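tool_call: predict_structure(chain=1)
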Amino acid sequence: MEFDARAHGATWRWPLLLSVVFLNISLPSLVYAYGVILVHLEELQVPIWLGLSTPTIYVLVYNLTQCWCREAADSWGGSVGYRVMATVGLMMVVASLLICAFIPFHVQPFVYGILGGLGSSIISAQVDAVVFDTYDSRLGIIRGVCFAGQAVGQSIFPHIITALIDGYGYSFSYIVLGGIMLQTLPAIMLLRVDESVSRPISFSRYSDLSKTYAVFSNEGMDKNYYTTELQLHDMSKKCWQSPSDDNLHRDPEHGGDYEYDGDMATITPPPSPEEKRRNIFGVEILPEIPEESEESDVEEYAKDVDNSKNKKRLSVAIKRLSTLGDSFDDCISKQKRRDSESDLEGSEQREYSEVEVTYENISPVTDIQREKIFNSFSFRCQSAYASMKRRIWMPSYRVYTIRRRFTYLMYNINDTFVKPLTRSLSSWKFYPSLMLYFSRLSLTSVAMVSLTKIASEMHPKISMSDSNFLMTLYGFTWICFLLSTPWLAQTPKRNFKYVALAGLVVSAVGCFVLAEADNHDSFSIGCVIAGFGYGAISCCWETAVQDFVGTRKWPKFHSSLETISGTLLAIFVVGISFIVDQERGLQFAMLILGIILSGITLVWFLICITYLYLTKLRTMRIGKPWAT
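tool_result:
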């Protein structure tokens, strides 16, 4: 009931929503619109496979670092942490663009791919954390709005990049583009979670841990919350001498002074846990009243005798301690310093002084130990040199810290990559999920990036302005599918696999159309079909995989899906790099991608048919409707 009330009464927080949409318009669009840069790189005698590797490296670094950035976002949270980390990510993206303006063309893919991918991963983790904590009751709608922002950016940025290259040249356009990216800093400053809004404990990314923590911290336990656990009190406000002056149960609006005031009244303390309890249904459990017997008087008398004996033992122990203290004082007063009498004669003629230290309390008495204290400048220099040499060649604590940090890093890598990978590879559901995620990444970094270059190979050749318009048409078709976001938000998760299957079918058809296109009309039809299919896959793949693998296994599979899918994408791009430099090589790569998507479509078609049989056909009876 509390969650439903929050869903209807929570505010939209329009400044935060606009900032999130603006970030989704600006940052991912550098990858979506990279096809424009790919065309200009070919004019500068840069191989196509090298230009195509830039978005691949970007996506690979993004997927490899997203799991660590997500954990860092959870630990850095708060009013300042999200903005600080997002600002660091933005500085990395801007730095990558500025560096690309002054380095050779063959090095740009690695610089922009590594720095840009890492910076975008950091920003994306902060945005996802803020969106989840703020719009947890409208998460489906907000994600649809974020995807709409990415579609808008994919429609606008091809025109912006073309205008920058025509006006400033290829190299200096990176500097202006970095300045445009820097304008997202005010939007990052609005990434703040409203900590005054209390959220239900059951709705959390770590619900199991949060429920366990709530039992010990007594969170969410108010007068309308019935539980077997009792509310803990601050015992520092408890007055143990006089119950009438008890400050624990006073009205907190009056400052909590112990002195009685006319305006302040003492609230009746609630019954103790022994006197009053409630069961899980809120019904009070009456206390157990002990029965009086004749043995109670005998027990009280025995307790009084034990107390008197304990007091006598305590007084004897205090007397013994006082006697020991006096003996310690005598021992200390009889001692005198052996080095108090120093021989001052001839001290001025010596470079050093000798102090005679005699250890008379050691038995048997050995030879007199003499220690020379050097006061010369040469000795101080030699000691400093020896100390420095010892620190350099024998850094015991430093070596220990390095080993400890290396061990922590290895454990972190094991917990983040190795354990999820071994757990994921042992489950058959992981492989269809990996195929679906790979299809989304391949459509992003291969199909979408190749559109502008494929447009330049049509007969007759499509101009840059027309190809940018077709990219805008691609984004507009994407937005047309996103108009069904309110319907998807109300759709059960078990039905998202059918929408994802439809997206796979449409995307495979779009790849085949683009592979066989040879004129303006067929290429335009291919862009429309590909945009619709990409919108369906990008919006529904995550929810479909969550429902397929199960809510409990999804957190274990998530990091493995990201890392392995990015690696498979890199292997796929390396494979097609041998054919993209040939004539109509990108169209042949689109044909290969269409065949791969057809195989993935067949796998998910079998999954959907099996699910329909298990849930509908097997439970159907003659003359009765399907069981729901």
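agent: Strands lie at 277-278, 284-285, 352-357, 369-374. Proceeding to next step.
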